[in-house]
Amino acid sequence: MKNTFLWIYRLLNLFIITCFCSLPIYAQNQQITGRVLDKGNEPVIGASVLVKGTTNGTITDLDGNFRLNNVAKDATIQISYIGYKTQEFKLDGKTHFPITLDEDTQTLDEVVVVGYGVQRKSDLTGAVASVKAADALKGTPVSDITNALQGRLAGVSIMSSSGQPGSSATIRVRGSNSLASESGPLIVIDGLMGGSLSSLNPSDIASVEVLKDASATAIYGSKGSAGVILITTKNPESGKVNVEYNGYINFKTPYELPEMMSAGQFAELANDYVNEINASTGSSMSEFYTPEQIQEFYQNGGYDYIDKVFRNMSIEHTHELSISGGSEKTKFLFSGSYNDNQGIVNNSWGKRFNYRLKVDTDIRKWLKVGLNFWGDYQKSSSIRFSQYNNLLIGALTYPNTLSPTDENGDYRTNNLISPQYNPSIFVDTPQNDGYIYTSRLQGYVDVKLAKGLNFRMTQGFTFYNRNTQNLYGTGSYEYYQSYGQQTSADARSYHNYSWINTNILSYIREFNEDHRINATAVLEQQYANNYYLRGFGRDLISEKLGYDALGMSSLHTVESERDITTMLSYLLRANYVFKNRYMVTASWRRDGSSALAKDNRWENFWAMALAWDIKKEKFMQQVDFMDQFKLRFGYGENGNQTMPSGQDYLAWTQITAEKDKDGNLSFVTERLANRDVRWERTSQFNYGLDLGFFNNRLTASVDYYTKETKDVLLYVNMPIYTGFTSRYANAGTVTNKGFEITLGADPVVTKNFRWNTSVTLSRNIGKVKELADGNSYADLSGNYENKYFRNIVGEKIATMWGYRNEGVWTSEEVNAGLAPVGTEAGSYKYKDKDNNGVIDENDREIIGNGQPSFQWSWNNALSYKGFDFSLFVIGVHGFDIYNYTREARLSTNGSIVLSPTPEWENRWTPENDKNTGVAGFIGNRNALTPSSQYVENGSFVKVKSITLGYTFPENWMKKATINRLRVYVSLQNPFLFTGYSGMDPEVTLQKSLTSGIDWGYYPNGRNYLVGLNLSF
Amino acid sequence: MKKQILIASCSVSMLLCGCVDLMQEPRSFLTPETMVYDQKTIEIMANGLYNDLWFENYAYNCRSQILGVGADDIVTGTMTKRYTFVDQLNVTNAQHDADVELMWQNMYAVIRSANSMLRDVVKSEDVSDEVKNPYLGEAHFMRAFAYFNLVRYFGPVPAILDPDCNEDMYGNASGSIIRASVADIYDKIIVPDLIAAETMLPERARTNDNSRASRAAAKACLTDVYLTMAGWPLKRGHDYYVLARDKAKEVIDHTDTKTYTLVQPYENLWKEANKSDDTEHIFALNHDSNNGTASNYGRSYYATEESSSAWSDYLADSCFYERYPNDTRKSFNFIANFKVEGTPRPLNYKRTSMRSPAINKYRDYTPLDANGKVIMTAQTNGITPIYRYADILLMYAEAQNKADGSPNALAYQCLNDIRKRAANGGTYTEAANLSPEDFDKAVFDERGWEFFAEFKRWFHLVRTEKVLEANMYNPRVKAAIEKNGIAAKSKEAYYWMPLPIQEVQSCGFEQNPR
User: Fold this and answer.
1) ipTM score of complex
2) Residue of A nearest to B80 (CA)
3) Which of B13, B28, B281 to mutate to test the interface with A (most CBs of A within 10 A)?
4) pLDDT tier for residue A82 given thresholds of 50, 70 and 90
5) What string of DSSP letters covers A401-439?
6) Which Pfam families does this entry report, sorted A to Z (chain B) (predicted)?
7) Which of B3, B20, B211 minimises the CB distance to A525?
8) Range(s) of the domain holding residue B303
9) Tally of CB atoms within 10 A around A908
10) Does A306 fall in a domain?
11) What is the total count of domains within chain B?
12) I need a surface site. Which of A674, B93, B147, B193 has the fewest CB within 10 A?
């Protein structure tokens, strides 16, 4: 009997147990050997073999064999493995033992973490996806677990949002429910809400569970609507002290860099520009370059600003070390990791140190306490990939014929025809420092009150400190920006402190074969206290002292801010299973929060789910190729209490003070109170089906869901006679519908060769269903990317709204009077939607959508003797990218950008009087934005990782007292298949509301890793 | 037994622990609920009125210039700028919605703050009326000034006196708030507010400079209001000229101990060092880019020919320049010959792309480097002038002539004092023995010269209904006006700005005619 998860579990156990068992070092009594098989005569890998009453033990190898030294002649040997009945036998003088383990139907089930407790996987009624961290990391070794999880969980979209070291990926579970206060799923680490996945040491993680549907997430009430990711870290296990080391070195390179004109070509283009503009407008500019200069550019080249931005190769390395062990009663685990990560862009880097100490002690049979102390320290340096004066766009557009500095040694602040900072300024001048230190202390007390009745109190504290310091010295961008060109510096520090207190009363009882109950009652309290302090100094006496002596500046200011939020919650959940096949779960949570006005403070959230395993019915017993046929249905409601940034106290009118010219204070009303604000509320239906065939060698899980989120927070217009143009209000309804399919198979399982393959398919369509006051659309408030999108009732979120480009007008068309009056030949041609002869904002229409509708992944893990190989492919389809980066190389806000982009060669000219797609160098080009010509198909398929590993045979390693040694090489993102013309389609998906716009974001690159896993 | 104790204590602790406090008031900002109205608070509230009027460096100091480009003294800085539409009297929401919306929001922000003071400070029992009243006077003044701007830019506008904006002056609840008539805004808000301000404000501003409202500021504004009420659109004529004449005379007659004179010479009014002067500047917004409330003079007023960092937003109208009398004001107010980097010979304005001189008035507010070269940064210092003593003199001259049918000696003196100062010791044409019409014309022109680029000319043209007439000098503007058939439209269609689109949509207001 095998099934997929058992195999996974066996491998995991092999891995874990190897860590905790060590080889005997003294040989006195005798040596025994044996082989453990299951009823199907297949070896049981990783079964635990223990001399009872001692810590002398081992596990079975890949062939099920074990060897145990120093066994007393009268010893009792215990063989156990999850899913099987534990066997014990006496030696009775024998030294070789062929053993067959019996399947244990009672414990066959794996348990999964479901929030405030665990549940048998077979009893699950909701949509829960689960991944064993070790499996994901084996195929995709990374320093941030999110990158390894990408594509592995159906319905969970993970997009690497930036190549900046230390930046975290964008995670969405079943799409986005929110429009203005969208922040992704709730992260719960070891039962403690909050925290970030990227701050974890991946080797510490045992499993990742994602609660997707409302029946599963409703227990997280007002925090659960965007899905919940539960992280469980490894628990210490008793046994001899075990040391484990994992490390890799990663060589990173950028993807193909964008095409550029050579300096010679560009110098010629610049002269063409002058001549063509003169011809078109009658002006009399003179050429920029003489033929000699052009010749020289052709010979000696110019200034390669792209080269200035990207490194040819950067290096990342990671080291993770853990030590664990302990007695039956007290167990400990200590781990630390260090990651040093150079970005593929110059001057960008990140460093992270992480530690964890976990101790569990059984004080009495009924009393258990434990401690989990962990934290991380990070430093990073990032470069200006902002929307305004973006480094990458700067490097792509700045004339490569101009040196970074002028004759006086000042950075250039103009290009050939308009003001533009030389991009070098953003790479060369930033001077910053800072760190983030997060420390968490978690303790629990677990009391067995009666049979099945348990009380557990957990108290967690989080201390978060962050410091950032910036010096804006002579010659920096900010220096040129400031009044009269002054140096300045600032320092910010953040001191956050929070605690969560959770009290769980649980009752888990199996009365007999027919009845099982798992009930939980919880009281939870949360408190968060965030403090921020900033000092700023302008006109520094000494640049060298900079932010270390802010007081030594002609003008210094200080500001501080504190906000305190509290929450009180009650929850109840019960899961009842009848005859192993009828399952029902019901839950209820009541949340009260300090962030809302008194009348809206308390909300109730409830959920209900049913499941039926038809295979367990008598009439299905005959169908022997099938192992599971389970139907699930769930409905639930939950909320989103994320407030848009800086809006924690929406229910109050906000009055702050500003200075006037003499430094007098004056009150400024920043915002009027909105006492009606309430949580966004999502209701969700989920329909699921789990199937298992051929001894679970083939499994399938299918879920279909519909979600509707009401009271969606939006930044809505308000009458301006209030002095404000807009405010946050609950003003919309959003729906998400989709399905998820997970298929798993073990096509080949032989003694030496195993092949495991799995496929996930996810589809989600998120639409705006309704907007307040019967509005049919709402433009996104804000600038930059937001200007390219519009939320339209009945349309998908991330709909791009603009002009439909139809190429350029030819002289023939203009002369024939086909173009609007005043049109110049060679200017852009747009669709006149209302046919009124004028192109204006009424001619805009939907020009694209940036929300991917379909994502898939295909994972393969093969092993042959000591070799393991994995291939992981992901695909993202059904979305458009607005290539702003391409547009910005041709024009911004309607004006020509004279950049070295090869696209200029296709422009309209009087000689090339055709519909070329790029307007000419003429007076009135009519370049409107957003324009459909920059919308491209964004779909891509990425080979995420190819990994080849080799585990040295055990008997070689024994001599070196090494338990396990594996070396591997891994290629990450080696192949990218896409029709998209920009550098990296994935980073365009970093924000859900403006998904699909490429705004000079920091691209990802290709990685080449070499690493090893070692334990002794 | 132990267990039972534990069960009991656990249950009890569970219940007791539910004690986290859900009442968390904001810690780092004030709310109306937590405000204590002592004198310090009231003063900071009052300071807020001026901050609201400034609003942002790109707001009052900038938008009022943009919306005034339609006057005859300044023109758009380049033809591709949207200001060209204002210049040619063709303002629509297509190009200018953001401009009108900002002006609208800016004024209503002042009104909301004034309304809060006039409700909450009045109620306060912490301080005496004696302490309160000067500050309340500032609130009355600023509310009146904001409505005065609104009614001149937009005509009928919502009359909001409730700080919570739940109802308008007529008691209409939000959702059914209407645009109050121009007459009601003047009669029920602006005039009563200014009369109240006049009595409550101190003779000299509490900061002893021009940056806070004083009694003379209220009188100057009231004079301006009466003159405007006498002209378009209310056209109440004679009675209001009388009111204006008398109000202006109160300041000229020095009935207060705080007196005003003309600063000599004219250009000293525009020095950064003198920006707080209150010998002639009665009321102005003061700017400082380091502390806050920066102005927008740094790049907008420089011509493209002068520097590649220049924005060239506004230039002087060359026809206005050419008509300008040859006095020291002229040589100060305009830059007709540009210094061009790298060439020793200056470039005459006639050979520039816009064939227009630049505006020199606000250039002392931008810093220079060690070589005396301007360091151009958009945000800089200086003032936004609002009322000067010169205003009082010319308003008096205009009102007295209209009220009494002919100019009296004081009116002549007012006009001639301005001319005399402009001559700065040189010769000038002394006005004398003019017909009422000629005198009016002389005062009208003098106002143009004196207040060149001072955010005033547009309103003056509107109330005297001379917008079209004044725009016939510049051939480019004239041609555009004719091409677009502006003259055939109703005056409301180009005297008033369009309402912000958002306001029309969310409040159901009827848009001004275009």
Assistant:
1) 0.93
2) A924
3) B28
4) low
5) TS-SB-TTSPBP-B-SSSB---THHHHHS-EEEEEEEEE
6) SusD-like_3 (PF14322), SusD_RagB (PF07980)
7) B20
8) 297-319+336-378
9) 28
10) no
11) 3
12) A674
